[in-house]
Amino acid sequence: MGILIHSARLVTDRAETADAWIRLDGDRVAAVGTGAPPAPRPGDEVVDAREVAGPGATLTPGFIDIHGHGGGGAAFDDGADAIRTARALHRAHGTTRAVVSLVTAPIDRLAERVAVVAELAATDPGILGSHLEGPFLDPGHNGAHDPALLRDPTPADLGRLLEAGRGTVRQVTIAPERPGGIDAVRLVVGTGAAAAIGHTDADAETALAAINAGATILTHAFNAMRPIHHRDPGPIPVAARDERVTLELIADGVHVRDEVMRMLFASAPGRVALVTDAMAAAGMADGAYVLGALDVDVTGGVARVRDSGAIAGSTLTQDAALRRAVAFGAPLADAVDALTAVPARAVGRADLGSLREGAAADAVLLDADLRVRAVWAAGARA
After folding, report:
1. Active site residue 124
2. Residue of 138, 146, 252, 277 with catalytic role
3. I need a surface site. Which of 6, 47, 230, 334 has the fewest CB within 10 A?
């Protein structure tokens, strides 16, 4: 039995197509067209997009979040059930696939958590693997990471974590100025994972050295890194001008002002990945939470470390990031690309993030206000 969705504006691969239809067959897109849809086959589910989502019905690929820490009251660090709970919250908001980001912890504990993610990834296609956001970070840009647990990226520690992941570690964030940082970038890339520059005091020259060593992601651009200065530009302009680099962006209006986000889209077209960096409070009420080893208070939807006042991740979902990006002036096709194909490529999954024929059957149906009305993940209604 397949699924035939028709009468939608299709937004995929940085293009918009009016009055489109697609057929999902199993976990793949079987066919795509425009105008009158083909006759349904026996047993097909037929979805009139306009009946479900109204006259502005828009169909996009499933969203892909390469940097998030939880949601629905659950943190990705807290085991398999917590990961499933948080993924359910974000899947309802259109995120059909995600990298599970883990915050700084002792190496033994991180290895255990990476192994849990590896087990889940073996059976759940919605989990793309893990992202080690720590502990190889700069204490001066620790954000919501416990500075007492930060350390230099030694081959032994990195090897232990990568081995625990059994090939499922997708991304490792490193402050490349730390002793051994550039070699660590090479080690990570050599295993097939993406090395990211983040939580860093790297100057422009060090950032470029890391990119030349193989780093291809800038972790949540502008946050927890040396800011732009006209005589000391830091990593942001270096990454923005380099075609090899994808720049993560948290489009919640808290981490980065709209004017700056607009500038980044213009500076790095096709290379901005909209991420949530969401913590357990995403989809939940204000209150007290924990991120890693740190107490966090959420007020007005903004999460901050209780002791330092530092921003502690977000309460963002990717559909809200889409609405914000379009509101600050990003073309819809570019904003959708930043939620789909761009993050997929960044973690080595160029087979995802599209609704072309043969692609994964992950789709999101939005109304005219870009609010989620239906989600399909691997061909099944979510």
Report:
1. no
2. 277
3. 230
